[in-house]
Specification:
alpha/beta, Rossmann fold, Alpha-Beta Plaits, seven-stranded mixed β-sheet, 8 helices, 16 strands, binds ribulose-5-phosphate
């Protein structure tokens, strides 16, 4: 692969490359979903190949499982491990408390189960994902297909009593059909513009019949690794307060990858 990467891909790659330094031999590891997580899986596969790391991994989606196994990473069902040492995943937005919006790739349910069942969660993201307040990215909510329009109406009604700026709810489509998640559910995207109280919204949404899970990850993420197009990476640990700046040699290292597709 010699084609020049876009600055966004370089940023994603840089964050992903730094994140796999946290992986240790023998770990049980959760593998996230999305384009940034796909870079992480490639970087991880490289370490597995060159260092002979023995890992037991759980994927958060079918496409991540396929990518990882294709690259020689051992992937097992979640029920084989039950608890993980570390999960590394992308995000659609993160705020100063490392609360997240996830689910842009429709994998939020498995992502939340896996991240919650991990000692630590590391989020990898390009710098554009950092926000002062969550909500510019539409919040994905996974719902069961039965009665989804009723569930949508109940969500819309509930939003009136909550601190949000906008209340548009739309069914996510895959071409002209409702998009189906790996679990066979639908996704409703809540275009809220600003979420005043993410913790309250997350709790209230999950009490509505038909809602399976929402894409707000509250107090789940421990560390964020933020990549920039020039290879600069910032690591922030919410628990210790540690902040580290490093530089990744993007130009040299990306040439080890042959396949860029997510
Ligand atoms: C998938 C997710 C992804 O982590 C999120 O959408 C970020 O994706 P990308 O790294 O492609 O920007 O939550 O459900």
């Amino acid at each position: 692969m010699t084609a020049e990467l876009s600055p966004m891909d370089k940023a994603k790659y840089a964050a992903a490359r730094r994140s796999v330094d946290f992986v240790e031999d023998g770990m049980k590891l959760g593998l996230g979903t999305g384009s940034t997580a796909a870079w992480m899986v490639r970087c991880l596969a490289e370490r597995v190949k060159t260092e002979g790391l023995k890992l037991t991994c759980v994927a958060t989606s079918r496409r991540t499982a396929e990518l990882a196994t294709g690259l020689g990473i051992r992937v097992v069902p979640m029920d084989d491990v039950k608890w993980l040492d570390l999960t590394i995943d992308g995000a659609d937005e993160f705020d100063p408390h490392l609360n997240l919006i996830k689910g842009g790739g429709a994998a939020l349910l498995q992502e939340k189960i896996v991240a919650t069942a991990s000692d630590r969660m590391i989020v990898i993201a390009d710098a554009a994902k950092e926000v002062a307040q969550l909500g510019a990215f539409p919040l994905p909510v996974e719902v069961i297909p039965f009665g989804w329009q009723t569930t949508k109406a109940l969500i819309e009604e509930t939003l009136y009593s909550l601190d949000v700026l906008n209340r548009e709810v739309s069914l996510r489509l895959d071409r002209d059909k409702p998009l189906k998640t790996d679990e066979g559910h639908y996704i409703l995207d809540l275009n809220l513009k600003r979420i005043g109280n993410p913790r309250q919204l997350a709790l209230v949404l999950n009490q509505i019949p038909g809602v399976v899970e929402n894409g707000l990850f509250i107090d789940i993420c421990d560390i964020v690794v933020i990549g920039n197009g020039d290879g600069r990476v910032t690591v922030r640990d919410i628990n210790s307060g540690m902040v580290e700046d490093v530089a990744i040699d993007v130009a040299q290292t990306v040439n080890i990858f042959a396949d860029l597709g997510d």
